[in-house]
């Protein structure tokens, strides 16, 4: 384990979440899962970082508030994850690194800022669990990953392909990050998959282009027909031991499970299916992940942000287990 020493230097053990049996879980400012802030522990094995940026959206705005909504909803997470038989915050130092301050009036500058901030965090040895923000942010994050790991395998959970070319002439939008990433050679094109794809497209060419880029597609109907175990097996085989980046657009979930998002599409995954597929990937070499497109203004009773907080918890658990096992 590459446990960070606490700022006090007193302890080699990870600093965990605030104890909810002593301090009510609704008290105090929210960090992800009530974990310490990064500045309280010095360095972390897994840094949870927010990117409040949504200038790249094509429809409803508001994902800039997603990270904080997920932090609020994550107050109810508990320290032991029975589904993976692991206590993620005891196995590794997980900390909340706060937010990357990206310019909302200049997408190009924001993309540069996000890449530089991700570089800085990766340089400390941390893996990232990034909370968006709209899907534009996946591009600078992938650039940063490729600088460290070379071209990475990508699992992209989303209703949408996000391999479109431009919107209104703009190259950097939430519908285009993965086309840019393929063009830039930062993805391992032998191990790319979309999961949960569905809904109307602009034309059949969208699918042809996407296939030429190297993506495989597991539609949401495939998940329903074939079941989560078979899908997870297939994905694991495709990924093998490659460094894996997982990007999750919360709209992969059905609007019944995630109403709080900008471009909702009917017929999506249940939160149970998403969590189970992720658990089935726990042996993959997960280098970092993002979770994007939570737009709390359209949410109800925190349905979306609760689903998002549990999703980030599973991803964090996978990374913590691998760190504890000395991987990567
Ligand atoms: N990445 C998300 N959520 N949506 C992309 C939708 C792009 C479009 O409006 O066609
Ligand atoms: Zn989407
Ligand atoms: Zn997306």
TrEMBL record:
List every stretch annotated Disordered. 1-23
* Chain residues that bind Mn(2+): 135, 158, 160, 162, 249, 251
Q: Which InterPro entries match?
A: Agmatinase-rel, Ureohydrolase, Ureohydrolase_dom_sf, Ureohydrolase_Mn_BS
Enzyme category, top tier = hydrolase
Q: Does the keyword Hydrolase apply?
A: yes
Q: What is this protein called?
A: Agmatinase
Q: How is the cofactor bound?
A: Binds 2 manganese ions per subunit.
Report whether Lyase shows up as a keyword of the record: no
E.C. number: 3.5.3.11
List the lineage, top down: Bacteria, Bacillati, Actinomycetota, Actinomycetes, Kitasatosporales
Please give the Gene3D superfamilies that the UniProt record associates with this protein. Answer: Ureohydrolase domain
């Amino acid at each position: 384990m590459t446990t960070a020493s606490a700022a006090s230097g007193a302890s080699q053990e990870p600093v965990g979440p605030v104890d909810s049996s002593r301090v009510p879980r609704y008290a105090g400012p929210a960090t992800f899962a009530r974990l310490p802030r990064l500045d309280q522990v010095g360095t972390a094995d897994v840094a949870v970082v927010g990117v409040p940026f949504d200038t790249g959206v094509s429809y409803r705005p508001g994902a800039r508030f997603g990270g904080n909504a997920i932090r609020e909803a994550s107050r109810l997470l508990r320290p032991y994850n029975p589904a993976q038989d692991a206590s993620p915050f005891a196995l590794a130092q997980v900390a909340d690194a706060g937010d990357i301050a990206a310019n909302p009036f200049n997408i190009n500058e924001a993309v540069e800022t996000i890449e530089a901030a991700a570089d800085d965090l990766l340089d400390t040895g941390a893996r990232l669990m990034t909370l968006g923000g709209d899907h534009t942010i996946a591009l600078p994050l992938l650039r940063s990953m490729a600088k460290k790991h070379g071209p990475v395998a990508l699992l992209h959970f989303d209703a949408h392909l996000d391999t479109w070319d431009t919107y209104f002439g703009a190259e950097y939008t939430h519908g285009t990050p993965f086309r840019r990433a393929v063009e830039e050679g930062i993805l391992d094109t032998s191990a790319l998959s979309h999961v949960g794809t569905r809904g109307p497209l602009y034309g059949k060419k969208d699918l042809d282009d996407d296939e030429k880029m190297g993506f495989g597609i597991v539609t949401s109907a495939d998940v329903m027909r074939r079941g989560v175990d078979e899908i997870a097996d297939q994905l694991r085989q495709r990924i093998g031991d490659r460094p894996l980046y997982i990007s999750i657009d919360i709209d992969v979930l059905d609007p019944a499970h995630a109403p709080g998002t900008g471009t909702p599409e009917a017929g999506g995954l249940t939160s149970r299916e998403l969590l189970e597929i992720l658990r089935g990937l726990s042996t993959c070499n997960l280098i970092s992940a993002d979770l994007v497109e939570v737009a709390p203004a359209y949410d109800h009773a925190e349905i979306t942000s609760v689903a998002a907080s549990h999703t980030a918890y599973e991803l964090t658990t996978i990374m913590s287990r691998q760190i504890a096992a000395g991987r990567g």
